[in-house]
Write a structure and sequence with these properties.
3-stranded mixed beta sheet; about 50% helix
Length: about 140
Amino acid sequence: MTEQSIHDRQRVWLSADDYHLDDLRAHAHERVRQTDYPFANDVRQGVLIYGSGLAEHTATSQGRRDVQAELVRALTDGPGVVVFAQAFADLAMLDRASEVFGELIAEQRRSGGTGGDHFAKPGANDRVWGALDKLALRD
């Protein structure tokens, strides 16, 4: 096993010992700088905003990989959240994904299952666990 694969496994499988309140406090006070995220259009309240220029950046294979790498860094080592605002011209694709998620949620409800989240009382919100896998399989 390589040193990199050990490092990757340690970053994915975390335990309670990996969390420290002081680390969270320090990270929460870090300022998100747009210059550290060249594909982002803006930073608002510490959240990276990706907009219409994203399509241009992802037009080539290398550009797509560069944007993906930046998004991974933003989600794992950066603010942990990103927003896409008018970043996609093909809204039909987003509408189709919404339609499929609606179908999955309807099936979940019919089966008596709940897909609520961690932030609200049961039944207040719907959630599709393993959403990307289920979306890909369904569509």
